[in-house]
Structure formats: C-alpha cells, structure tokens
Amino acid sequence: MPKNSKGRDIAEIIQDKCIACQLCIGECPVGAINMEGGVVKIDPEVCIGCGKCFDVCPVGAVIFEKPRKKKMTGIGQEPRPLEDYRGVAVFIEVRGSRGAEISWELIGKARELADKLDTQLFGLLLGSEVGLVAGDAIAYGCDTVYMVDRPIFKTYLSRVHGKALVHLCNQIKPEILLLGATPLGRDLASVVATQLETGLTADCTGLDIDRQQRLLLMTRPTFGGNIMATILCRNHRPQMSTVRPKVMKLPKKDPDRKGEIRNLDFAVSENKLPQIIDFIAEAAEAGTADITKSPVLVVLGKGACDSRSLPMLEELARLLGGTIACSRPVVQAGLLPYLRQVGQTGKTVAPKIYIGVAVSGAVQHLVGMQGSDKIIAINIDRNAPLVQIADYALIGDYSEIVPKLISGIQARRQGLKGSQQ
Amino acid sequence: MHIVSCVKQVPDTAQVKIDPETNTLIRSGVESICNPYDLVATEAAIQLTERYGGKVTVISMGPPQAESALRECLALGAHQAILLSDRAFAGADTFASSYTLAQAISRIASIDPVHLVICGKQAIDGDTAQTGPGIATRMGYTQFTYVSEIVSVNLESDIIRVKREVEGGSEIIEGRLPALLTVELKLATPRYASLPNLVSALTQKITIWGASEVGGLLERLGLKGSPTSVKEIFAPPVRKGGLLFDSTQNERAVEDFLDTLFTKELGRLDKPLVKDKG
Questions:
Q1: What is the 3-state secondary structure (H, E, C) of chain B?
Q2: pTM, whole model, 2 decimals?
C-alpha cells in the first residue's frame, strides 16, 4: 500500500474506473481530492488515509487497503417516517381524450412492483371529462384511480398540474410515483419532486424492488448512454422516477378487472397567465408519420446522408409498410427533420423490424432502438457497432444493396402471390 | 432586462466510451466542454439584451476548472460571470443543485432584479432535464421548458411569449416575468466570438461564490442535500449479433439474406403490410 512522505497509508484513484461523480470530493474531510482533467485526483501529501473516499465511491474506483469494512453510505438528512408511505402510484398522462400509451406501459410495470411489495397500485389522473380513461386504468391493472376531473386540466400548465399532483401525493402518500419520460412527464415530475422535497431519477430504462429494504432500484443510462447507473432514494418518499416510452411492455387490457374510481375535488386558483395561445400540430409542421408507431423503420445513418439516396430508401420503407427515420448526424445535416431522429436526444423506438442503413451505431443511437424486435444492419464496415448487435448484417455499399433488396422483395412477393392463386 | 444564464461544464460524452473487456470507462483524451444546450441558452440571452437592452449574468456550479465554461460564455458576450464553487457543493444530485443555484440567483436578484433565467434543456452528461424546473419551482418563477423560440418580451406589462415543443407538436404560450426557460438547440446558434471579446473574456474577472456567499442551509448542499444516491454502475447490456451476409465476398449475399428473411421472418414482414399500421 502506498505511503506519503509522512508515512501515512493513502488512498489512490483507479483513473479508468472513476466516473467523476465527485462524491469523494464532498466526503473528504481534509480537501485532498480535486477534479483534474475529467477525473478526480488525490493529493498524497494532504491525504490522511481515513478511507472515507473508499466508502463512498459507487464504482470501486478507490484503492484503499487498510483492513476495514466498507460502510453503507447514507444521506446526512433526518429520516422521515417512511412507513407512512405505502402503495405504488402512476401518473396517468392524458392525450386528447385518451390515456397515453406510456401510462399503460407504466401501469404494467408498476403492477409488478406493487405485487413484489405486496401493496396497492394507484392511478393518479388529472383531466377534463376523463372518466373513460380512469376505467381504462383499472382495466390495465390499477386497484384505485384517484381522479380530479375539471376543465382547467384540459391543457397542461406546470404550475396547475404541479399543485394538483403534489396535493394528491400528500393525501395518498404513495411510496413510489412513476411518470412517463415525455415532455409533459419530465416537466411535471421535476416540479412535483422539488415541492415534495424528494429524489427524482429521470429517464429510467429499468425498475426493480429491493424487497428487504423496500427500495425502488432505478436504472438509467448516463454519460450519453455509455454506462448504466442504478439509483436509490433511501430516505425520502415518494421515490420518484420517469420512465422512457417503449421500454416497458404494454400490459394486456382486461375490461372485466374490478377497481375503484374515486373522484377528488381540488380547488386551483385560476390565474389568467400563463395562457396557451396556440397549438401547432407536429404533422402539420413536418408532414410526417410518427416513427414510434411504425412497425418497420428504415433508418438513415451518417453514411447514407445523401438526398439522392432518399427516394430509394423511402421506397424500401414503403414496400415493407414502414417509414424512414434517421440518426442524429442526418438531422444536423438538415436532410431530415428532428421528428425522425432516433436515439438519446431523439425518440425511442421499438419497431418489429429496424433496418439501419449506414448507421454506425453510436451508443447514443443504440439506447433509442435496442428494444426493436429484429435489427438489420446494412454497412460497408463489418466492425460498426450496429453490425455487431444486428440479427442480420449485410456487408457492402448500401447504394448497391438497397436496389437489390427492393427488386428481391418485389420478386418474392410476386412469387408468393402466384403460388397463392 | 437582466437575464441569468445557467451553464454546466460537462465531459464531451461522445468521447466517453466503455472498454468491453475491462468494463471500465476510457477517458483518455476526453475534453471538458460547456454543455451545448447551455451555450444556446447564453446566446439567446445575449440576443435578447441586444434587442431589449440590459445585461446577461452567467453562472455555473462546479469545480474551479468550470471557469473555462464561463469564459466561453463571456467570449460570446455575456456581461458578468459567477462561479459557484465549494467542496460543500460536490456530489449534488439535481435536487441539491437546483437548491444551490436558486440560492445564488436569489442573491443575484437581490442586488439587481432578474427578469429571466435561461437554462439548457438538459446537460449531455446526465440528460435529466430536472435542474431548470427545480430552480423555477424554488424561485416561484413562471416555468417554460423545451422552448424553441422566444416570440416576444414585453417589459412594460412583464409578459413573455414563447414557442415550446410538446408531445405531438408545439405550443405558443405566454406568462408573466420573472420566468425561467429551458431551451432546445434550435432556439439559437452560438455565434463565433469576436477577437476583442475572446481577449477580454480571458482577462475578465470571474466572481467566485462559496457556500457562505450563496447562503442557505449547509445540510441542503452537495452530497448531504441529495435525496438520490448511486448504488452501482455497469456497462449497458449488449445484444448479440446474428447472421452476417457479406456482399463484398459473395455476389449472392443479398439474395441469401432475403431467402433467410422470407423463411424466418416472413410473418413479421407481411403482417404490417396487411394491417398497414404505418
């Protein structure tokens, strides 16, 4: 074990493991740790060898060999009476007059979590004339739906929805609250978590329960999808998380399922402002189909970012009953609108068939499409990351391969028709 | 008008990769940059002061090196910069971060009233999009997230009108100042800094505030004030590759592929056609 000039045993950082979370900087009692070039460094002459950095490091990036047991790290805040909080709650997002699909996906997952905790599943619903949505929430798996049905909730305003959801949470006291990681859900979750003074983990792709500690394990991609982190919220309730659409499976709807719908009233002061002046529909803006709903996607990568290739790729998509999408560089180049972008900063998709055309497959892209049923990669580079994970990889120049695919599919369809007749 | 722009220094995540064999991060050569969304926020703030007069104060919470992100903003034309840097801030999650930033903005506003706070939609390292709304909620400011256009600001009636991206389209919305906006990349394109600006940005004084200057409760700062904690970190799950058809080696590769596809996945391919859901 290394010693400094004073003969003290000191801690060391494994640079490759350090994720620069800076927990150790906050923990070090003598200020021996600093950020340098994206990783932390320990000043050996200042280090007193207490090992607190070793205790707090979440990734085992600190070497400290003095014999001692690794302690649990806690938050230095007064624990609240956590046992007052019971049940799993899902915020049900309303789109138009129907429940958003993400809310049903969440209910499917939340049902699983509630069963593991041996507790109830609540739906929290704010809207105007949304009785049918409440019924759907029961059919998808809620035990009780708490509903505030008022005209003011017809459109979304951070302040109004925030107040109402905070009010519901204070009344119902769920131990877990899940929202969709949609623009609305992410906006609302931050407001509510701040007011309830609890932890919020954004954009989770995995949720599970530590039954012994009754804790929600929230897993999310971080560093642009390069690593996955599991986050805990130990001493605050509800444990809040937003979840990316299309990550959790849509549960089966059971119209015969029984549950309770409770109408709650909640008075909101109706201010004149903020006020929504106008809404511009996406389709009107770009004239595009929703890439998250298409069963087949032909996805253009940087290597196929060429306006001359666009017609043949559109033809391939049309032939397969799908639509075209793209990776981020194609949007940056201005060839396709942002609405068609797949990936971390674009949309998450899970089509039946994903065809990546000269898509290299940067992690930021992969996190947005890994849920696809079948992945087909067309690429000149057999070492491209997407080729490595594809169910079918076609190696070669896409501008030669795609026309062959089109004629090949047409020929086979003709053949099929012929044999059926 | 007085605008505060909040920026974060982040590792260039596009360069951070994981070593599949050792399961560790490869960080060599990874630079620290100013979060791209925050540069857009700062550019938008500067454009507003060019249109309506006033000044831009840019703030950042981070280690002493985060100063370089602030200097980037000064080079764009921000008028003053404050770095919130203290060991007590380290290890903050978004909850503790928004607390510290809101404390600092309150102090700034007590010296010189703030009309508008502009933040990037999210930072590219954490991608949470939570700190901006957290600040707005704590300050009691009107909150508009995902702003793609600032339509107008009326300083006489204290009303701001913006366009924001929402599910299925975008909306035009107006609300009262002071307000906090989190902004999309398409809101503005950060300008190339002029040479005189670059030079003055290098020498301009950056105020540094620690915990005592920011004020507030110590137990709400940094690690101690963070309700969430990291349990573990691991490499993302990887899908296993399947069949490979090499058209550079085999002339019939595309045909072979289609044969396999039609034998194995025919149902998948033809169902969507029949249903025509797209």
A1: CEEEEEECEEECHHHCEEECCCCEEECCCCCEEECHHHHHHHHHHHHHHHHHCCEEEEEEECCHHHHHHHHHHHHHCCCEEEEECCHHHCCCCHHHHHHHHHHHHHHHHHHCCCCEEEEECCCCCCCCCCHHHHHHHHHCCEEEEEEEEEEEEECCCCEEEEEEEECCEEEEEEEECCEEEEECHHHCCCCCCCHHHHHHHHHCCCEEECHHHHCCCHHHCHHHHCCEEEEEEECCCCCCCCEEEECCCCCCHHHHHHHHHHHHCHHHHHHHHHHCCC
A2: 0.79
* Domain boundaries along the sequence of chain A: 12-63, 82-263, 288-420
A328, A345 contact by CB (below 8 A): yes
Q: How far is B187 from chain A (nearest CA, A)?
A: 13
Q: What is the pLDDT of residues A69-122, one digit of tens each?
A: 444 434 444 445 788 899 999 999 999 889 999 999 999 999 999 999 999 999
Q: Tell me, what's the pLDDT at A76? A: 41
**CATH among 3.30.70.1150, 3.40.50.300, 3.40.50.620, 1.10.510.10 for B2-225:** 3.40.50.620
* A27 vs B contacts (CB less than 8 Å): 91, 223
ipTM for the predicted complex:
0.87
Q: Which of A94, A190, A198, A376 to mutate to test the interface with B (most CBs of B within 10 A)?
A: A190
